[in-house]
Amino acid sequence: QQQVKQSPQSLIVQKGGISIINCAYENTAFDYFPWYQQFPGKGPALLIAIRPDVSEKKEGRFTISFNKSAKQFSLHIMDSQPGDSATYFCAASRSGYALNFGKGTSLLVTP
Amino acid sequence: DSGVTQTPKHLITATGQRVTLRCSPRSGDLSVYWYQQSLDQGLQFLIQYYNGEERAKGNILERFSAQQFPDLHSELNLSSLELGDSALYFCASSLRVAYNSPLHFGNGTRLTVT
Predict the structure, then answer these.
(1) Which of A49, A106, B9, B102 could make an SS bond with A10 (beta carbons 3.0 to 4.6 A apart)?
(2) Nearest chain B alpha carbon to A105
(3) Of A34, A41, A43, the CB nearest to B90
């Protein structure tokens, strides 16, 4: 069964807007929560990651918010740009084990 | 460029056949992972190897097998192929098996079974 649930499936945002993608997990043993970005014809690439000992991590325009009690985490893309148009995957794992991915969100940023 | 090389890029074959997908990890990476990506199931973990030994199994069918060789490259063998096996197959590698050793993905092999 899907261990990580991701929403929405697709998202359209205007340039300069905020893109928000949400994920939820059930396994409380998970202790690593990365986000991957995938462009057509390419493999997923690590964007940003967080561990459950912090509630937020920011890298440039990308921020992960983490809510341990709710078992939810989200990706916020500030000042979204057309170049951010891609598929985004959240994932979760126990340290050292394979990532369990969400089904992905297709983001389109319109000019 | 992630440094992970997958060959071939595309593969078209018929039902019932057997194919081998190859992966060369990033230089120095000891762990290799195989994932299957389909439109309806997303990225599904198949199997993980670390330094030549199988470390974890995911949703890998019995018709599929893999191995990691002494030079650390890996092969995924798919046999008795069915139409439903058509998908993108990704290999990823990491330096070690720890949270701060991220996965680096290749660009995948697109398998089409006709």
Answers:
(1) A106
(2) B42
(3) A43
